[in-house]
Every structure is written in structure tokens, then in C-alpha cells.
Amino acid sequence: xxxxxxxxxxxxxxxxxxxxxxxxxxxxxxxxxxxxxxxxxxxxxxxxxxxxxxxxxxxxxxxxxxxxxxxxxxxxxxxxxxxxxxxxxxxxxxxxxxxxxxxxxxxxxxxxxxxxxxxxxxxxxxxxxxxxxxxxxxxxxxxxxxxxxxxxxxxxxxxxxxxxxxxxxxxxxxxxxxxxxxxxxxxxxxxxxxxxxxxxxxxxxxxxxxxxxxxxxxxxxxxxxxxxxxxxxxxxxxxxxxxxxxxxxxxxxxxxxxxxxxxxxxxxxxxxxxxxxxxxxxxxxxxxxxxxxxxxxxxxxxxxxxxxxxxxxxxxxxxxxxxxxxxxxxxxxxxxxxxxxxxxxxxxxxxxxxxxxxxxxxxxxxxxxxxxxxxxxxxxxxxxxxxxxxxxxxxxxxxxxxxxxxxxxxxxxxxxxxxxxxxxxxxxxxxxxxxxxxxxxxxxxxxxxxxxxx
Length: 454
Ligand SMILES: Cc1cc2nc3c(=O)[nH]c(=O)nc-3n(C[C@H](O)[C@H](O)[C@H](O)COP(=O)(O)O)c2cc1C
Known about the structure:
The protein is α/β, with parallel strands linked by helices. The chain contains 18 helices and twelve strands. Helix 17 (about 385-395) links the parallel strand 10 (about 375-380) and strand 11.
């Protein structure tokens, strides 16, 4: 009779019956014609692979039944990525303000592509470099920043979580990075200066052809110690934010049957919202009219480069133009006296299918170098990890800005949530730099990144 023996695979559960006593082994030739395994010599299982009943002393060290922790600290600590913070933010924030933050214009193609652009690269690490200490500090617009990113201007920030601009500016101050207050901020220029007196506070201006209106804000920003004015130029008209339309989004959120139901499972947000000062455009409180009027008046389709020239003459500090989307415009605003530019498509919230800042970066960097410009190149849109920031710096950015990445932190846990977002990005950057074999920001160069498909 022919007997076949299957080879024992130590990775599969095996019972002692699987082994065959050596005396019963088939000969090398017997059955060779009928079984491919003939000739394999089975051996007894090593003692470590024999099954046994577990002893209590084996189980005890494995048992770590901890009391579940529901504190804010524990919740934030469990987040290891900005995407984790986004998940928490989504659970804790009513749908309309969450979508207002998370969403973008039209089909949201710009935002998806901007995030994808950072994924479509390959890092090229150097080995055997001493990376025992990694220094992330840099210089931007003539002053140091402890990390190579700052907080981008965002409007209505207290609607996302009631600590809003206070949380953002104080977290930035503690981290030693710049904070930008939006013209549409829900804390005033003066409030932010008081909340973060040692912070590096920048002011973002929506420029109007009504120069008196702009002038008043510019003077207040200078008086409050802002060293940089960032003028946003990608908002000739408002983008079509379809999630807001579908959610019937109003500012401030209205109490409807839907929002009251929503409140039943997001009580903390509503409690904070209803027990703090009502939302206003704090720097614009002098203006009368509805919030909708104010928003519409924020966008001025009649602006031209002449208005930028006027601003350059009027503002004595550093002037940054935000919303640059072509190489030609980058060159042009620098010729008109900008100290820096932000390659940005407004987080995909304006023009859909807009140019992706990360794609533009090498050409803009080359163009400004060719005209011997010292203007700072900043970049935003789509940054969701510290590795994204490192890739941008390697390809020619001097600095980056984060919008949603910090807002997800804010919605997940107020000031501590913003701290956590900054911490996550910092850890990502230190790890990425060390693995790249780089210990200083100035050592990063285009050789560290290969854009896939190029
Ligand atoms: C909720 C929200 C509000 C924003 N408000 C403003 C604003 O008032 N002024 C401005 O210049 N940009 C504004 N932005 C754009 C940001 O400054 C920044 O360009 C963008 O968020 C970067 O993309 P990211 O969110 O992927 O980081 C806003 C962005 C978001 C998400």
C-alpha cells in the first residue's frame, strides 16, 4: 500500500497525529510516481510547538485590563495622526460647522488632488548620517520660527469650537510659530494680541477698493504689533461650497429641529457655543449689516495690482501675498514689492480644479531664483502630516501653513487639541528627517524627493 506524508508547516496548527513514526516512512521510491511529496522526512515537533494548557503564571503578565479613560487628555493622546484628530473632530462637532471646515468647493477635486500630490512622491534617504539630534527651526521673513510651519488664517474659528482664535494663537505662541488672524476672525486683532502677547502674530487682510476700510485694519494690526500683513488675493468672488448649501449652513448656526437633534449627541459643542459670547466678526464689529452682507462685502472683484501697490506703500512691515497659483503671478507680485508669497488655492475652497501648490513649487522656486529674489516662498493646501511639510521644504518652500490640520485639533479638543496637532506634525517631521538622514532644515534639497510619474 502506498502511504503519503504531508510536510509539516510550523506556521500551521499541527497535531501530534500529523507526524509519522520513522519506522513507517515510505521508501524514497515507493509511491514516487503518485505523490509529489514522497521522500519528505517528517520529524517530531519541537517541544515549544507542542500544545498545552496555559498556566495562570503565563497569563498574568499579559492581562492589562485598564479602566477605560474618557478624559480629553486621553482622547487626544490616542490620536497619532491628523486623520485621527479629524475622526474625533467629526464625532464631536455638529455636521454644519464640521462640513464648513472639512469641505471645499464644488466637487472638492482641488482638495483631493492637493492631498494626493503629497502622497505621490518617494523620499530618497541618505544613510549613515549622524541624526542623533534633529533641528526643525528655521527663519521666516527675518525672524526665527521653532518649526517650519505656521497657522493659516481661518474665518469663523469660534464656530468650530468656542476657544477658536484664542486656542490657535496661544498654541502657536507656546510652540514658537507664527499665527495668522483672519479678517473674518471671531476674535479681534487686539484680543489676539492680549491673548498671545509673546506670540508672533500676523494679520490676514481681505483688501477692498474702499481704502479707508482697509486702512483702519492695517493701522490696528500695526499698533497691535503684527509684523506681517498677509493679503489674500484668490477671492474675487466666493467659491461654491456645496456642503454648506446642502446643510443649509448659516452663521451663526441656527436652532432648527435638525440642529436641536444634532445637539442631543454633541452636547459639549452646543453647551460651549451657547454659554460663550455670541459669534461676531470681531475686527469688523464697527460695520453694520447682516453677517451675509459682511461676507459678501469681504470679496471685492474690482481689485487690481494698483491696489497691491497702494498696500505696499501703506504697510511698512513684511507684506505677503496669499493665493498665488501661477509662476507668472509669483514673479509679478514680487516685482510689485511682496516680501513673500503663499502658493495656495485657499484649501480648495475657491476655484475647483485649480493648480496644486505642491506641483507649482519647483517652477516657482526656479523662477524666483532666476530673478535673484529673496522673497519667501510659503505653501499651503493639503498638508496632513509632517512628512508633507518636509517634502514641500525639500522641493523649495521656505515655510508652510496649516489650515484644517489645526482646525481638526481645535474641534477635537480646543486648545489642547491644537497643541496635539502641532505635536503630531513635529514628531512626524523629526522622524522623517532622521530617516532621510538630515538633521537641519537647510540640508533638505530636491534630491530628497522624487515625484512619482516624472
Ligand atoms: C474653515 C476655513 C476657513 C478659512 N478662512 C480663510 C480666511 O478667512 N482667509 C484666508 O485667507 N484663508 C482662509 N482659509 C484658507 C486657509 O488660510 C488655507 O489657505 C487653507 O486652509 C490651506 O489648506 P489646508 O486646510 O488643506 O491646510 C480658510 C480655510 C478653512 C479650512
